Amino acid sequence: MPTWIAKRAAPWIWRKVPWKTVWAVTLWLAQRGRDRVRDNLTAGEQSEFWGLLKKSRGRPGNLTPRDRARVKDIVGKAIRG
């Protein structure tokens, strides 16, 4: 994963990261970062993460703005640890 993403992963700044970047990191976590998801998220957050990913069906436009905000929070936590 690029280091510039990790630098921007601070909790207060993560909400300002562009949605395209968040979506790219989400897809990376789903494909190759499963250990980060498993290690850094609680069981409830993991199920919510996978549920939102399934709900989107690969398209971020399928998520409501509230769901997008929640994805940003969960992905930020998964990246930060």
Outline the structure in words.
The protein is an all-alpha fold. It has one domain. 73% of the residues lie in helices and 0% in strands. The protein has 6 helices and no strands. It has helices spanning 3-7, 11-14, 19-31, 34-40, 43-56, 65-80. α3 crosses α6 and α4 (34-40) crosses α6 (65-80). The longest helix is centred in the C-terminal third of the chain and has 16 residues, at 65-80. 15% of the residues are buried. The model has no long low-confidence stretch (mean pLDDT 78).
What is the gist of this entry?
The chain is mostly helical and 81 residues long. It has helices at 3-7, 11-14, 19-31, 34-40, 43-56, 65-80. It has one domain.
Tally of discrete structural domains: 1
Q: Per the principal axes of the C-alpha atoms, what is the gross shape?
A: globular
Structure summary, number of beta strands = 0
Helix % is over 70%
Overall average pLDDT: 78
Which stretches are poorly predicted, pLDDT < 50 over at least 5 residues? none
Largest sheet: none
Radius of gyration: 11 Å
Based on secondary structure, the structural category is mainly alpha
Please specify the SSE layout and strand pairing.
Elements: H1 3-7, H2 11-14, H3 19-31, H4 34-40, H5 43-56, H6 65-80
Task: Give short descriptive properties of this protein.
mainly alpha
